[in-house]
Fold:
Amino acid sequence: MSFRIAAAPHGHSQQSTSGMMRWVCYALLPGLLVQSYFFGAGVWFQLILAIVTAYLAESLCMMARNRDARSALRDNTALVTAVLLAISIPSLAPWWIIVIGTAFAIIVVKQLYGGMGQNLFNPAMAGYVLLLVSFPVQMTNWLPPATISSHDLSLWQTLHTILFEYTPAGYSVEQLRTNIDGVTMATPLDSVKTALSQSYTLDEIFQRPQFGVLAGVGWQWVNLAFLLGGAILLQRRIISWHIPVGLLAGLLIPAFVAHLLAPSVMPGVLFHALSGATMLGAFFIATDPVSAATSPKGRLVFGLLIGFLIWVIRSWGGYPDAVAFAVLLANLSVPLIDRYTRPTVYGHARGDHNGN
Amino acid sequence: MRDIKSFVEAGLIGQFPGGIHPPERKSPANQQPLRRLPLPAELVLPLRQHIGPSGQCLVKVGDNVLKGQQLTEAKLSQGLPLHAPTSGTVSAIEERPTAHASGLPEMAIVITPDGDDRWGPKQPLPDFRQQDRATLIEHIQAAGIAGLGGAGFPTAQKLASQKPIQYLIINGVECEPYICADDRLMREQADEIVSGIQILQYISNAEQVLLAIEDNKPEAIESMRNAITGIDDISLRVVPTKYPSGGEKQLIELLTGAQVPHNQLPLDVGLLMQNTGTAYAVKRAIIDGEPLLERVVTLTGECMHNPGNVWALLGTPIDHLLQQGNFQAEEETRVIMGGPMMGFTLPVTAVPVIKTTNCILTPTLEELPPAQAEMACIRCGACAEVCPATLQPQQLQWLAKAKDYDALEQHNLFDCIECGACAYVCPSEIPLVHYYRKAKAEIRNIAREKAKAELARQRFERRQQRLEREKQERLERHRKAAEARKKMQQEKAQQSAPAADQPAATKPAQDKSSAVAAAIARAKAKKAAQQAAQQESSDKDT
Amino acid sequence: MSIVVGLIAIGVLALIFGIILGFAAVKFKVESDPIVDQIDEILPQTQCGQCGYPGCRPYAEAIANGDDINKCPPGGEATIKQLADLMGVEAKPLDAAHGTEDVKKVAVIREDECIGCTKCIQACPVDAILGAAKQMHTVIEHECTGCDLCVEPCPVDCIDMVPVKAKPETWQWDLKSVKANVSMADNIPVKMVE
Structure:
């Protein structure tokens, strides 16, 4: 008779990393559905491309490192990276965009740093930034929301555009973005930035067709759907509230104050909350635990920093949206945040870190 | 201090950070009344059962012993004495596997019971209030009582502290899942526990006693509440169920709202904590004059088909308990001594019950699934959220894997109470506590090695000094010998010279001859010195 | 004129900084052990002489004077790493010419064979062997460094180097070793319920 030797504790809460990552993907579904409703089915093709690329890249890396590829894929972290990147890019971006971005995210940002748990930067956002600075045109070609678009693309037309950069009828994405009046429809964030630089006031800008009751048409619902997904993650205790709350506070409090002071040039709370990737960033991107701060207090600071950076870059930066840059900058400051937010250990005087 | 007083007087229950709520599974074992077992075929009593060195053995193989007879001798601060749990013969004193996670053998006294269970003389002190404190403490020491809750710290040593005690805390929390030994004892022996508490209070001179029980034991609470009615200075505190609220530091924070400062003991802030089982053992030792011979052990887990709590004599082989619990082995069964959070697996069942054995848990694989393959840490922070010591387990884990022992100590690894909450929640199933235990053992080992190296260095240096000193002494001896010889020769020369040519001697001639004699003496001295040096170097060679 | 002002200004600045530096050198002086002491601290103090020097201290002095750091088999990789950190040089593998890393051992004298020649007592660098001429000798176990130096001189070969026995209190939580630990006590009959 031989007994099993094991280390205590002998039970487990049954919450697993792969399960958590799977739930992150489930919670993204509402946002994905709304996004595909407003911005076309392209996002699903991007998703498939991203997942295939991510799995291939991860397997190749694990094989090159002489590790078991199957176990690495089982943790679902590559899946989450792929899904986040696919959601972040314009749905009609050419196929090689997402392939390059995902491969970079997995191979360079994740695996070259030592694989799961070792990466300093959020892989999806690092991939996104690489694409944004390398292919600015393709990466900003967002279609206008379906409800105000003059084009309605079938699945085949969408796939054709992604693969060959033209619809079967020969339209380019640039042409698709143009409405009946011959005006190119920029994203709400982009149009606000451009129009403000042309000395329009916000009131005038918000009269334009791409703005709806809350913020930009389409974008507002996409953001609300991601907020719903975030609520699911919070409820299932897959993420803690610190980062989302910190991020939203860091973004919205300055926005609120600035809007009070300069209502004609500084957009308000609703616009910031429901534009661009705010909610996706707050609940799904910034909450990537690997590249975030660790202690609850540290996470609050981390979230606040991201939110504030988003607001600063949106208000004065060169790019319309800023979630990716803000997250990467905050990733850089994680060691510093961690150092100064170390919790006080039981029985130690507050702030005493044993000589640190 | 004032803070604690106002907190306690307000009857508040505080909070400690972190903690988890694993399934409790106290039933069915807590539904069965305590039962006594038939005597096992042999009793194995490891000489070391507790923190501290082992005692001096007082018996030899073949001796007949009576129940309660002392087997080993140990003075206060040197561990605890052992007693024969029943009457019988000492059949062996040899190495046996011990109740330790390592399974390493240790010296043990093996007793074959004669079945009579014949008591030796008892020394009860029923009117304990007539005795002075020192006598009672000595009595408790002589009864071999160790803390029956966890680490098995000798109770008398705790009581012997001269620091003023404000609150005596009696720990009946029993927060670890499955274990219900204290629960059953409180239900069935409430009055005796209360007598024990009163003795402890009398010895420690505590102003007030706080009796803490977790709110998942309503029967025990009821029973203890009845037992303490009319006793003003014992108050019952019901604490919410959360693991590890029974940890000494955690319970103190719950009951007093204050933390025990780092590097201090509860005694330093006027608190003394004892387990309910210990209180019971103290009562038996003082009032009935019976040393610690048995304890309550929970037999539980789904492989145990007759679960429950039993009075097990110290030294009872686990085999015997498993038989009594009707244990049905499965493939890859774990036999865990202790609870599911902090217990350790036993490699063999020949190990005995010792003073700190509170539970034998034999779960099925479905009941407590074994840990899956460890995945990489994703820094999710779940471990930090549940850590009752507010450590950063994920950070400690990185450091432990990197073997960065200095940083581990800086991150307060030694404040970890090894409760296992972090590993319980870790989604990557990293055996965090195991890493900490290893790191702690390694750090202690390094410290030990260092102390040993220091000792060796001192001894080496002293030896070098000694050799040097001996060499000098030898040289000195040779020099003296040479001098003496020289002197002798000079005297000889002086005696002979005048005798030879005394009348004809002119002054220069005399000078010349004495110079020659001196040169001869010098040469001889030199030769002697050389011989001495040779002899010395040959001394060295041997 | 302006050159003079410049010179004066620079001169005054130099003076001020000089004073500050001088002050700092006194005020914030770091007392550090001489390098030999620090090296000696790291060495395992077995005094075995495997490095070719008569003891750890002489080897520490030799390292301070530029000798290689990889000549200490009892210290092994860990000591080499620490020495490399201290001396600011690259860690290198143990020099096999001086021996290989081994488990910790202590000397044990087979006492009935000992003839009481005291040769081992003279060889022991830490005076860990007890005995007198024509009397049986014995090793003080916890003071033995396992240096091996007493084995060679023994004329009757009655000294064994035995591995240090694992004890529960010094066990390193190596769960894989548990089964092996138990098999040491294998002769005990284990009754099991079938």
Summary: Helices of chain C lie at 2-27, 35-42, 56-64, 76-87, 119-123, 178-183. The longest strand of chain C covers residues 105-109.
